[in-house]
Amino acid sequence: MSERRKDEVTAEQLDEMDRADLVRLGTSLDDVELVSYEERWPVRGTQAERRAERRVLMWFLLSAVFGLAFVGVFLWWPWDYRAPGEAGYALRVLYTPLVGLTFGLTALCLMFGVISYAKKFLPHELAAQQRHSGSSSEVDRRTVAAEFADAGERSGLRRRTVLRRALGLGGGVFGMGIGVLAIAPLVRDPWKDTEGPDSLWHTAWRSSPGEKVWLRVDTGEPEEVVLLRPEDMHAGGLVTVFPFREEEREHAERLAAALRRADSAVLVFRLRPGTKVTTRPGQEEFNYGDFYAYSKVCTHLGCPVSLYQQRDNLLLCPCHQSQFSLVGNARPVFGPATRPLPQLPLDVDEDGYFVARGDFVEAVGPAFWELGT
Ligand code: FES
């Protein structure tokens, strides 16, 4: 409809119109022809209407039930790592699927409820509209507002108290689930524990005064202890190692656990003799001759940096192709990673075995862990 026709409608005329008139005016001004606009349930309170109402109600209530289940699983289901075969393994394996399943079903049931309500209770409208351009006029704004108000009224949501409350319950629990995700770190602060074995402030390479932490090679046998010595590696060689403490030797469970901790894996390189390396300030003494040790956890998103291009002294992360230069002290030279791989200070003990001279001095893994430092 042209602006001229809209201008023909005065403010006084608008004031005199009721909502139905405004709806009709709005559709005609928008060049919309309402072919049909029928109430779904012209006769109220029939068996069929109540059946439809129960069906919608069922979806909203199911959404609320799954939403509560999601919150329960997220907060209370055991989630810590257990190896296959250990007690409680089957239960912990279910954690992630259950979180996804309950959250997905909450959203799905809520959507089904809304769709079902729209299909069963909103007026059946068949309209044809011409396209037009330009900004909205006063007439447009008022008529559109009237159309929304009319749709809300005709939807019957106002008088269907039970359905409205069920929708509120489903939507509320769904929102609560999202809220729980947002505030969970405030309740269980991952930064709070600074000393415990699972604290984010240090890795398993940290040693107490006088304690030796050796570099142990993973042979595939969790109970086998093979310690690394310099002569075990050829020039250009690479070995993945994990921390080992003498008191773990007789404890199969602790030996296996030492290989599992996510931030423990370290790559030890023996560069070719004479390879010129740029060291990082404060870490000039972290290497042992031609031997350098870096965290294996990619500083982009935490994948194991496991591809070694020996000829170019490059380490490649297979996930998003970050490349780290071994002669540039493991700084990223390509890809999305922005931080170098943290370096582990190395030494060799009196028996000729590699030991760690201390923990990493930087955060291991994805950069976001550094936010609190
Ligand atoms: S996780 Fe290594 S590049 Fe993305």
From TrEMBL:
Q: Note the InterPro entries from the entry.
A: QcrA_N, Rieske_2Fe-2S, Rieske_2Fe-2S_sf, Rieske_Fe-S_prot
State the GO CC annotations. plasma membrane
Q: Which Pfam families match?
A: QcrA_N, Rieske
List keywords of the entry alphabetically: 2Fe-2S, Cell membrane, Disulfide bond, Electron transport, Iron, Iron-sulfur, Membrane, Metal-binding, Oxidoreductase, Respiratory chain, Transmembrane, Transmembrane helix, Transport
Entry membrane topology: Multi-pass membrane protein
Q: Where is the Rieske domain?
A: 263-355
Localized where? Cell membrane
Query: What GO MF terms are annotated?
Result: 2 iron, 2 sulfur cluster binding; metal ion binding; monooxygenase activity; oxidoreductase activity, acting on paired donors, with incorporation or reduction of molecular oxygen
Residue ranges crossing the lipid bilayer per the database entry: 56-77, 97-118, 166-187
Matching PANTHER family = CYTOCHROME B-C1 COMPLEX SUBUNIT RIESKE, MITOCHONDRIAL
The job of this chain, per UniProt, is described as: Iron-sulfur subunit of the cytochrome bc1 complex, an essential component of the respiratory electron transport chain required for ATP synthesis. The bc1 complex catalyzes the oxidation of menaquinol and the reduction of cytochrome c in the respiratory chain. The bc1 complex operates through a Q-cycle mechanism that couples electron transfer to generation of the proton gradient that drives ATP synthesis.
As for family, the record states:
Belongs to the Rieske iron-sulfur protein family.
What name does the UniProt record give this protein? Cytochrome bc1 complex Rieske iron-sulfur subunit
